[in-house]
Amino acid sequence: MAKPRRSSPPAPADLDQLIHERLRLGIVCTLAMHEALTFTELRDLLQTTDGNLSVQARRLEEAGYITCLKRFEGRKPKTTYKLTARGRAALDDYLEVLSEMLPHSSQHSKSAANARATLRTLSAET
């Protein structure tokens, strides 16, 4: 279903504030590029602490943007995260608003077009 066109240019307030925080944006973007990642893989890729990743991932999970599967391998706990369809849609919307906020110079327009093309490619892969 097509989204209605905005009557005015987007403003920073139009950005999804849940995703806008640096680490949460990193989590969502990283999971968009992978089918699933363990807690350790995600932590290492994002170069963050266990506590910070845990808190921010929980917020995304509560919003329905990611899922968290906890299981044991032998006696060791293993947590795996996946991006949900809702999370993918939220990221798509976030990137679209962000690209619309860029100035309309030719350089920025090319960057925005490249970002949208990359996003479409990522969306098609999952």
Largest sheet: 3 strands, antiparallel
Going by CATH, the homologous superfamily would be Winged helix-like DNA-binding domain superfamily/Winged helix DNA-binding domain
CATH architecture: Orthogonal Bundle
CATH class category name: Mainly Alpha
How far is it from the N-terminal to the C-terminal residue, by CA? 19 Å
As a whole number of angstroms, the C-alpha radius of gyration is: 16 Å
Write down the overall mean pLDDT.
Answer: 85
Q: Which of globular, elongated, flat, extended, rod-shaped describes the shape? A: elongated
Commentary on this structure:
It is a single chain. Helices cover 58% and strands 14% of the residues. A hairpin with a 2-residue loop joins β2 (66-73) and β3. The chain is elongated, with a radius of gyration of 16 Å. It contains 6 helices and 3 strands; from the N terminus they run ααβααββαα. It has 126 residues and is of the alpha+beta class.
Any key phrases for this structure?
126 residues, Arc Repressor Mutant, subunit A, alpha+beta
Q: Helices, strands, pairings?
A:
Layout: H1 17-20, H2 22-32, E1 37-38, H3 39-46, H4 50-62, E2 66-73, E3 76-83, H5 85-101, H6 106-125
Antiparallel strand pairs: 1-3, 2-3
Helix pairs in contact: 2-4, 5-6
